[in-house]
Amino acid sequence: MTRIMYWNVNNFGKERFFCEQYRKVKRRKLNQGGMSDIDAAAARLNCLYDTISRNMPDILVIIEATTGTDGLPEGETVDESSSYYLMQEIRQRTGNNNWYLVPPLVSGTEGRAEGIAVLYNSANLIFTGPWRWPGGDGPAGSVAAIPNANMRSYNAPYMWRQNPYNPAGPANPPNPNDPDNTLPNRNIPLDSANNPGRLEYQVAGQWDYHTGGNPANAQLNFPDAGKRRPFLTTFYDTSVAVNGSTHREIRLLSFHASPYQFQSNPITGLREAGPAATGTAEIANIFEMNQALAPNQVNVIVGDFNIPLWNYGGVALPTIAYNPIIALGYQQQLQQVPNNFPDKAYRITHIKPSDNSTPYNDNGFPAFGYMTEPELLGRYDAIDNIFVRYPPMPNNAGGPAANMTIVNRVTGSPYTGAGLPALPVGVPAGTGGVLVYPQYLTNAYCMPVPNGVAAPNIGLKNRFQGWNNYRRIRSTSDHLALIVDI
Fold first, then answer.
1. How many Å apart are CA 48 and CA 87, to the nearest integer?
2. To 10 degrees, the CA torsion angle through 163, 169, 170, 174?
3. Secondary structure (3-state) at 402
4. What's the CA gap between 446 and 395, in Å, rounded?
5. What is the Cα–Cα distance from 186 to 197, expressed in whole angstroms?
6. Which of 146, 311, 321, 445 is surrounded by the most beta carbons within 10 Å?
7. What is the pLDDT of residues 239-260, one digit of tens each?
């Protein structure tokens, strides 16, 4: 079993989570409890880490590792150190130095460029690419583009991997046993499907895709040039021996789709699906993710697809976006439920700004008055999801997926259990989550579960919106994390 946590951490960057400069303010700092920037960043980091560590994953995917990526060529490493800092933070707090980071690569242009951070526990997982690193500024490339003799480590003094506990410089040279400081110094096993026998610290994730997997063919876009591309990482999993093999091969595709859900048809002027849906649907055309699976292979797709689970405005967004992926045999972990409260609250992964949120029992448990509802600019509610594909039986490669849980620190997770309401009729049994995450509120009485607060109660609403309660959670991210065992 391998546990994967995926989380869109809003604007995950050094200033928001690892702020090193105290900014003196002459008045109360808005939206962070009057704290200095450095103290507020520490509070967000504590919330982030507490959420990650409650049910420690083997692989952690964070999207929106954004700061410093605009203007950099795609396929190069991001010019920002927060992902590296988080790796070091996990090592320090857990005492487990087996945690490593796949170097995040720039994806997208047009002011929407980002990186995706994939961290993993190397005790059971070996990062195998599928691509390679040529040294210098990159970019990462395929086996055909970077032959064995041209593979290099990430030894340039990249900003993204400066050590927060031991700043780079003459007194902090690269560790000869860990040449690039983020990936292990070991050979990939010879029976690996990707980069067999090569050094782990010389391989890279894949950021570019072509029809049929052939670079000579047309490039795939998601859906247009300049839009963010998925990030493919592959792992050799020693925790699961399946179907006569000593290991399992994991292909993990992470994606942050364009935020634009709708567009006007240039001919008819009618509303139609925008790049969020059509870009997500393009995933089904990625050769590396649509071929028959080996008996010991599992494919996983995680992301913020910016696609709701329901049709809005007469456009079947989820059908357009997800059906091509499901048709390949991928199992959608968060499936559609009735488009009404309280049913839909069991699928929503996006939460409102603090000043618009209340503990009032407007929409019932677990939505209350803080989960996102349809708004004028779009339907950003149940927009995160996970898809898992296993080989056909009897070669199930350790499947099926289990323990799928929406990680909610406002009301706590799971959504079922002693003292909680039964799942609504429209929500299938067994889909209310499994893994336990308590409320991350200093004053839990301002968000009593499962009944909420009867409106109006200005005192409890203000307390709920305060920094030590909802505002700290929302300041950490406007998305709820997802976690699953594969």
1. 13
2. 40
3. strand
4. 50
5. 9
6. 321
7. 988 878 889 999 999 999 999 9
Looking at residue 108, its amino acid is: G
- pTM equals 0.94
The amino acid present at 369, given as its one-letter code, is G
Q: Which of 102, 91, 105, 48 is nearest to 250 (CA)?
A: 102
User: In whole angstroms, what separates CA 218 from the centre of its chain?
Assistant: 28
Collect all residues with Cβ–Cβ distance below 8 Å to 344 and sequence separation of at least 6.
Answer: 309, 310, 337, 338, 367, 381, 382
- Per the DSSP assignment, residues forming a β-bridge with 59 are 4, 120
Lookup: tokens for 12? 């995950």
2-58 tens-digit pLDDT = 999 999 999 999 889 998 755 544 444 667 888 888 899 999 999 999 999 999 999
> Using CA atoms, how far apart are residues 293 and 65, in angstroms rounded to an integer?
30
**β partners of residue 98:** none
The secondary element (H helix, E strand) that includes residue 249 is strand 248-256
Give the list of residues 6+ apart from residue 353 with CB closer than 8 angstroms, or none: 474, 478
Strands 115-121 and 125-129, sheet pairing: unpaired
What is the helix (H) or strand (E) element at residue 102, kind and residue range?
Answer: strand 99-102
Closest CA to 78 of 139, 21, 168: 139
User: How many other CB atoms are there within 10 angstroms of residue 437's CB atom?
Assistant: 22
Give the DSSP letter string of 339-380: SSTTGGGGT--BB--GGG-B-B-SS-TTTTBTB---BTTB--
Q: Which one, of 180, 138, 172, 9, lies nearest residue 86 by Cα? A: 9
